[in-house]
Specification:
The protein has 224 residues and is of the alpha+beta class. The protein has 7 helices and 8 strands.
Length: 224
């Protein structure tokens, strides 16, 4: 016998069915949340000023915590996707900056002719640069790519390229369409890279600092 509730006019059978449906829905949502937890937990993790990097030697934790907060958070986010790569990048970022060798060419540059130039860009918290890249033609006809007031994020096995792509961010965009100028002399300081003679430079649109180890562009300057 079905009993009616005078106040609401709803039978007990209907209320029991709705309760079961609500319970099943709740169980389903919990199951989905648990199943997908690895992919969304990063968005709910509360990070503080003293959030250490898991797996990093305890003697190096203070150096990690001394990094800018945005960089620390980017490295912790990267660890969610690639723990080994993130740890390698932490070690690179807490190492001392590499200063370029002393540059004594400032006077010679005054007599040179600037052909194209561009400012280095900040790509994100981990990959960035500042300063200016300029292709100069020297009085004797030689041409150089010169970095001035230059500083960039550190890298490992970092090389300098002239690229046809105005914004190359991967090795694929550099492959077969770039001019390799050798290893970066330092991530801080003015520096020169001599360009091949009789080479058509008009096809290149950017100067690129590329980290081979992490297969990514550290910074790029659009040349105009």
């Amino acid at each position: 016998m079905q009993v009616e509730l005078p106040l609401f006019g709803i039978g007990l059978d209907a209320m029991d069915l709705r309760f079961r449906l609500l319970l099943l829905t709740l169980v389903g949502l919990i199951a989905v949340a648990v199943w997908t937890f690895p992919s969304w937990r990063v968005y709910f993790r509360q990070r503080g000023e003293n959030d250490a990097f898991p797996g990093l030697d305890i003697d190096l934790q203070d150096e990690f915590l001394a990094l800018p907060r945005a960089k620390r958070e980017a490295l912790l986010d990267l660890r969610e996707r690639s723990p080994n790569m993130a740890l390698d990048m932490v070690l690179v970022n807490i190492a001392e900056d590499k200063l370029a060798p002393r540059d004594d060419s400032a006077e010679a540059i005054k007599a040179a002719r600037a052909l194209v130039s561009g400012e280095f860009q900040e790509l994100n918290a981990l990959y960035w640069g500042a300063g200016r890249a300029t292709v100069y033609e020297l009085p004797d006809g030689r041409r150089i790519l010169r970095f001035e007031d230059f500083i960039s994020a550190p890298g490992s096995n970092t090389r300098v390229y002239l690229a046809r792509d105005p914004q190359p961010l991967s090795a694929l965009q550099l492959e077969g369409a770039s001019l390799d100028l050798g290893r970066l002399k330092g991530n801080v300081g003015d520096q020169n890279y001599f360009l091949p003679d009789d080479h058509d430079l008009s096809v290149y649109q950017s100067a690129v600092v590329f980290c081979v180890r992490f297969n990514t562009t550290i910074t790029v300057a659009r040349l105009r």
